[in-house]
Every structure is written in C-alpha cells, then in structure tokens.
Structures
1.
Amino acid sequence: MSDQRLTISIRGLEAFGRHGVHDSERELGQRFVVDLDLEVSRLAAVHSDDLADTVDYAALAQAVAAIVTGPPVRLLERLAGLIADRALQEEGARAVTVTVHKPHVALPQVVSETSVTLHRAEP
C-alpha cells in the first residue's frame, strides 16, 4: 500500500477575541486570524465522497472560532494550544499545525502582525 496522507486546511479564519497580557487587550479585544492544517489517517472519503468518512471542516472551523471568542488567555501560545487540543479530538487526527495571528499588536515598533505556530502530533 502506498503512503497516503490527507491534510485538511483552514486558512484565514477570523474571530474577535479578548486575549493578551495587558488589561487593555482583554478589555478592548481585537481580531485574531487562525490557520490550521490537520493531518488525518481517515482516507475513506477519498473514495466514498461521504462527509461521514472525513473531518467536517465547517464544524471544526466553528469550534475554533468558539475558542477564539471564548474565555481570554494571556498568551498566543496558550490559544494555539487550546485550538490544537480541540483539532486533535477529531476522529483519525494524527497531527496538527496551528498558527494564530494577532494583526493589531500594540508594540512600540511598526509590525504588520505577530503570530505563533504550534505543531503537535499524536504519539
């Protein structure tokens, strides 16, 4: 059997959250952008064309948005970890890479955004 891998990607998911180290970030909130790649071992949908045989990326996107809009955390690293934990709950999930972008970070330097990327694999 050949080595086949299936990756389900969500790019540019935007949601309003209240995450940050500073009180003002948690009070005012801002837009966060999430990119996610979920590697799965479930390949049946390649042949069946049946949503039940794969990860429903609409439901996953909704779950990720709920995390971003949910209770505040201080660090982007923690937010990425929560998203990774949820993504790996999907049946057949083998690994996930999550990038959380913070486009409007308050820094004295001019930057277009800050972001963190977390890769996590099931043992």
Note: The beta strands are 6-17, 30-40, 93-102, 114-121.
2.
Amino acid sequence: MKKTLSLIALVLASTSLSFAGQVVSSKKVVVAADESRFRANEWQVDTSVVGAGGKYNSQNGGGVGGNLGVNYFFTKFIGVGLDDSIGGFWPSNKSGPEAVDSLQANLLLRYPISTWNLAPYLMVGGGASWGTASQGDGNVGGGVEYRVTPSIGLFADCRWLYGGSSSVGQLSYALPRVGLRFAF
C-alpha cells in the first residue's frame, strides 16, 4: 500500500509539472544611459586665438589672429566644420605685418572618451587664403577637446596648410588654435 501511494504521489507530481506552463522570469533588463557629453546631431560654435608659422606667399614668417567657426556632427564620431582665421602675418624679410584671411572647410573625425569628457579628433579639408596673394589650399591636422559641461568645451588643435603655385607663391604653414567651443 505504501508503494502504491508513493507511486500515485509521484505520478501526480510529475503530471502537475507538465501542465504548469512556461516559467516567467521577473528580471528586468536595464540599459545604462549614455553619459557622454559628446552627442550626435550636435551643433558647435568655436572662438579661438590662432597662430601661424611657416611659408605664406613664398615668404617665411609667423603671425597671430582670431578664429570663428561652426561645426555639425551627424553622429557622435563624424562631422563637418567651417572656420575663418583672420590675423597678421609677419614675413621675416619685411618690417610690418600683412593681413591674412584663411577660410577652411573640414571633415571631422572624433573619438569621444566619455569617462574623461575628452575627444581627440582628426580633420582634413581645404579652403583658401587671402592677403597679398590669394590661393587655394588643402589642410590636415588634429586636436583634442575637453568638455567642462555638456555645452562648453576647451579645445586645442593644429593643422598644416599646403598649396599654392610658383606664380602665386608657395603655401606651407602650421595653423594652431586654442579656444572655447559651445555645443548645442
């Protein structure tokens, strides 16, 4: 009799488990929010101090001026930018400065490091420089931006401008910038 009751209990227990249905878990998957201060679809406005050193209009020299720019990032990593540098260039063989304006358009590639609020970036593009000689140019460079807040950053970069012709004069100089960047 004990064996029969044990067998019936075992059969009832196994059949009740077979009709129990699917096991449902009450665990929820939580995805951490993106804490990066660098965003996709981000507009930026730059203001900076700009320097120059190298060869402009086939004359060696250096200079200093100001720069304004605007950038747009399609994704967190890829954007485009346009900036204008205006300043004075002092050729080594002349006593006074020459006014120079350099308008540049760039493709920007950045790699945000969210834990440090830092984004190193590369830029490549082209534009034109005006002064005693007007000439088209290409440029390549890189820099780094540190975001103090989600909307305010400090940046430093440098690019090498190259181009010109023998009739206009060779262009080969560095264009470093240090400034503030406002992101929207």
Note: The longest strand covers residues 42-56.
3.
Amino acid sequence: MHRSPHLPGVPAVPLEGLDPLSMRVHEAFMRALAAHRQLMFRVMAGEDAHPGQVFCLKVLTERDGMSQRELARVLHLSPPTVTSMLQRMEKAGTIERRPDAADQRVTRVHLTATGRERERCLRAVMGAAIGRILDPIPEADRRELERLLTVLADRAVGAPS
C-alpha cells in the first residue's frame, strides 16, 4: 500500500486514469519537492534568511535596478508579497528602493554592498547544502536525473490547462 507523500501514515488515493507506476513516480517527485523545500527552509533559518529572499538577491545580482513589478513577475510572487519582503530586506540593509528617473511612479530595487555580500554568503550556504544531497549520487545517475527532470518540466510547461 502506498502512503501519501504529504500525510505520513495515510494511504494515497490513486488519481483517476493514472497507472500505478505513474502514481508512484508522481508521489516520489512530490516527496522530493517537499523534502527540498523543507531543507531550504531549515538551512536558510540557520542563516536568519528566507528562501524567497535568497532568490530575490540572486535575481537582483543578475539584474540590479529591476522594478518591483518586474521582480514580482520573475519571482512568481504577488506584488504585495514582494513589497513585504522588500521592506524586511530594506530594514536589513540588503536593498534600497529608488524612484525611476524617467517615471516617478515606478520604484526600482537596487542591491547594497551588504546585499551583494549577503547573496554571496547565502549562495555558498545553499550550494553546500544541495551538494551534500547530490554529490554522493554517481555522476551518471545525476545526469539521468537531470535529463528526466528536464523532460518532466518541459512536458509540464507545454501541457494544456
């Protein structure tokens, strides 16, 4: 009997039209996603950070000066969620918000020197945590996993709603 990946000890209810193997693959994928999310929250909590802030810092490292609206779109977060996150980051001194020179209605987000250093530190912490999970897996298996996850992602992106 298969167990629900989200409710330990609770039998999983098969999805209609899904063969048993596909159901097990889906369950394993969901367990991996949940475990990864929990790992990132634990690791970032040890750094007094939130995983969303890490990705925000990464995006701003690549495209400093984005508008808050652009940032929300890239992070796949609602504008109010991004505003709250940026307020916390601004208080921590990692970002600063400035009005756009050409359009005062637009607010641009810029990394501070503290933010750049924080991004480098958190990137290293995340890399170490992910490395502890993936590095022991043989290279050939990691390559196959990468291939399969890419196929899965591509199929999900192209799937009809």
Note: The chain has a mean pLDDT of 91.
